[in-house]
Amino acid sequence: MADYWIAPSILSADFARLGEEVSNVLDAGADVVHFDVMDNHFVPNLTVGPMVCKSLREYGIDAVIDVHLMIEPVDQLIPPFANAGADIITFHPEASDDVARTLALIKQQGCKAGLVLNPETPLDVALPHIEELDVLLLMSVNPGFGGQSFIPQTLTKIRQARALLDEKQLPTRLQVDGGINLDNIAEIARAGADMFVAGSAIFASDDYQATLSQMRAQLAQAESK
Ligand SMILES: O=C(CO)[C@@H](O)[C@H](O)COP(=O)(O)O
């Protein structure tokens, strides 16, 4: 099977037991921890910062932590997140006055870097930076909240992004985030994504292991078609 990564979003975890929740979901077979950072300014919700990322490391979480910054401005929080144990840091181009500089800053801090495109943001916005991206994240909901429905028009954008990355022979991860569940993960994989962020579909399920296994079965099926 292709090297698909499933990344549970902490947004839907029980924050009172975050270390345990993240540990459980990794034991159940998740590949990456997706760490949603919101500032009640760039998006209308407020979550957590570098201290909580550091706490997860101190708790013993050694998986890849993928920090999705939904904050503006971004640069000043990049070194604190790198020091707190982030492996991947992604941000929205609208939140930086110099996207190339922010990407370089993330890499200087020893992290993988990525850009995030909202549903309404055209793929063209990523084009000038495409060679520098370790991750291209396409939002399939408007950022701010978990539990929203997947916007179906995102499938076209995923196909276009996949064609672009393949044409340029880039190893960039194509991540999709928002409304991913057992019913649509196969179609999203067929469109070309290889990294799947899912919050409510995993954390609201009774059995994380069963849900992750079913997601992997869907991904295997997507590949065989
Ligand atoms: O960044 C976001 C929302 O802003 C996402 O990571 C969601 O938290 C995904 O949650 P579900 O849509 O899977 O519930």
Structure description:
The protein has 225 residues and is α/β, with parallel strands linked by helices. The chain has a single domain, classed as TIM Barrel, CATH 3.20.20.70. Helix content is 35%, strand content 19%. It has an 8-stranded parallel sheet. Helix 4 links the parallel strand 4 and strand 5. Helix 6 packs across helix 8. The longest helix has 17 residues. The chain is globular and about 40 Å long. The mean pLDDT is 98. The structure holds 5-O-phosphono-D-xylulose. InterPro entries: Aldolase_TIM, Ribul_P_3_epim, Ribul_P_3_epim-like, RibuloseP-bd_barrel. Its cofactor is Mn(2+); a divalent metal cation; Zn(2+); Co(2+). Belongs to the ribulose-phosphate 3-epimerase family. This is Ribulose-phosphate 3-epimerase. GO terms for molecular function: D-ribulose-phosphate 3-epimerase activity; metal ion binding.
Our Rg estimate from Cα atoms comes to 16 Å
CATH superfamily: Aldolase class I
The residue-averaged pLDDT reads: 98
Uncertain segments are none
* Structural class by sheet pairing and helices: alpha/beta
Q: What is the count of DSSP helices, taking H or I runs of 4+ residues?
A: 8
What is the CATH C-level name? Alpha Beta
* CATH topology description: TIM Barrel
Bound molecules: 5-O-phosphono-D-xylulose
Q: Give the strand content.
A: 15-25%
H/E element order: EHEHEHEHEEHEHEHH
Q: What is the 3D shape? A: globular
- Largest sheet descriptor: 8 strands, parallel
Strand element count: 8
* Biggest sheet, spatial arrangement of strands: 1-8-7-6-5-4-3-2
Beginning-to-end CA distance, first to last residue: 12 Å
